[in-house]
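ping. complex inputs:
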Amino acid sequence: MEQPVQTETWKARSLEELIRILHGLFSEEKVSVEEVQELMESYESNPEEWMQYAQFDQYRYTRNLVDSGNGKFNLMILCWGEGHGSSIHDHTDSHCFMKILQGNLKETLFEWPEKKGNGEMTKKSERVLRENQCAYINDSIGLHRVENISHTESAVSLHLYSPPFDSCNTFDQRTGHKHKVKMTFYSQFGERTPC
Amino acid sequence: LGRSLRVLNLSGNRFGEVPPVLLALRGLRSLSLGGNRLHGIPPDIQELRSLEFLYLGGNFITSIPPELANLPSLSYLVLCDNKIQSIPPQLAQLHSLRSLSLHNNLLTYLPREILNLVHLEELSLRGNPLVVRFVRDLTYNPPSLQELAGRTIKTRNVPYAPSDLPENLVRYLSLASNCPNPKCGGVYFDSCVRQIKFVDFCGKYRIPLMHYLCSPECSSPCSSASQSSTSQSESDSEDEASVAARRMQKVLLG
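pong. complex structure:
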């Protein structure tokens, strides 16, 4: 495939096609964040295509690996029951794309705490992401908390992380103290993987 | 239907109270009334003996009845996004509780009994005005004569029978609480000292826990000497902290 002069505008017509185009993009030396975000946003969520990966847990949100991107990225589906939310976390120097497949998710951005910080963390902004919207974050932008604030609807999101990572820091909002945590998968490629 | 219905989801409606008819569904395992207009939880919720999952997030609930603790199978309790100001210590009797969601309420502290929930794996507390500094309740209302008499009866084991006393006093005597200070062995009724101590979970989150003591001279179980200095009381929490930390390592979700 000839290297385009400017970034392409892709349209993924199915989840399978999305994954295929992603593999193509990430096989290149340089990857454009805008290109990936546009591509993710172009895919119109079709539950039939991702239902097998959407495994919910009663008590907390789940991470379900969909594709391991030839080691260049991890593509996973997160399932959020009513009221489920994450702690404030960073992204271990990786790119993070988050697309809503079903329902809505609230994203709250935070500033990095001061080195010897011992005060309440500063909220930068918050927004509610709608179905098919795709958000992007990396450590230079800041930290975030993601939550399903609905008490009536569950939510499903599609995440791409590049390079892949399996640990990150969580932050206490009241003090800014951080704590390293290991992240695990609830299921991989559709199979439940108890840890 | 009364005995066969297992799951009922009435979320996103306009219920101002838990419909009393629901309390007859003895076989109910999962009940959601999230996103309604509830202002309270009826004590008769304890009738739902089979309940494992109770979702009450997104209402206007201001307090929790201690009777909620009488649900032996409850493992998932969601009370987030309400107006709750305090948690009754009896909730620590919910031995099966695995997940407790309390975020976005009006809590300033938790009862120290919360440490007894050994199976708790998820606890959310964000969005509560939890106190971050040591707080000592400086006002202490001296006990009434009735209370002093009641304390004496209890601590000296003065024998009495229901026929000896008016019914209201018999009931009053049954409400005595034990002072947690092991060196005290005393009891109190209404007059007590509230004291907040902090328990530090793995150096990552400090939870303010409320102790009730029978008098200002008493000290809480782990503390040694005076309670006047802040640093003393913070280090006093270390024994408690290490026990709590072992039990609730994965718990806090900020």
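Chain B has two domains: 7-124, 131-254.
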